[in-house]
Amino acid sequence: MMIFPDPDAELLLFTDASASGYSIILTQVRVWDAALPVDEQKHELIVCKGGLFKHAEMKWTVVEKEAFPIIKACHDLDYLLLRPKGFRLYCDHANLAYIFAPNVELKKHLRDRQQRWTMRLCGLHYTIEHIPGEKNVWADIISRWHARSVVGVAAVRTRSHQVAPVAAFSRLRSSNEQDFVFPTRTDVLTAQQAAVREKSRLRVASKEEEDGVVTIDDRLWIPSCSTDLR
């Protein structure tokens, strides 16, 4: 609460709803001037709250969305609204002023949810009035305050790699070079045994092993780190 309510003051409840949210504003006017409209009275803010519609609530009709903050306020703020002097209820939906009129019997044409909500107001001492939307400014602002586009977030796995310059790789050696010597099977076996980790990662269906020497597609497998054998 912003301030403590005065039992002798006029208590005013303003509600509003948008497509995605709702608002509840409770004020008091210590000196009520009957010659002034409600938006020109000297208001003191007591409660200001709002929320978002979720899941199935997003599919409610406009009337149901506009009615919801009224019922929620009467439930959450009953300790403030249950008072001998009662309170004034203002909403910018004209039909609600008729549906929730305290001096009119329960309407049979209402939907089940609306009938249940109407019955929740029984026992409360209040008057309800329609207020033009342009005069219900603060309630309208709060009802849209939380509205924002929903951003989807997806988990992404990244893999880093480094690009080495061409000079970092050994070029293919030509058999015409004077110091060129053909590697023996023993040289290849020694290189394969040194590359244990790379060997364990080989996932090739045509891989074969003879006398400890690995061949792939009938060719000797040369580990990538054995540049001197290439």
TrEMBL record:
Q: Which domain of life is it from?
A: Eukaryota
This protein is called: Reverse transcriptase RNase H-like domain-containing protein
Pfam families of this UniProt entry? Answer: RT_RNaseH
| Signal peptide coordinates | none
Q: Which UniProt keywords apply?
A: Endonuclease, Hydrolase, Nuclease, Nucleotidyltransferase, RNA-directed DNA polymerase, Transferase
Molecular-function GO terms, alphabetical: endonuclease activity; hydrolase activity; RNA-directed DNA polymerase activity
> InterPro entries attached here?
DNA/RNA_pol_sf (IPR043502), RT_RNaseH (IPR041373)
Q: From which organism does this entry originate?
A: Phytophthora cactorum
- Keyword Hydrolase listed? The answer is yes
Q: Which residues form the Reverse transcriptase RNase H-like domain?
A: 6-121
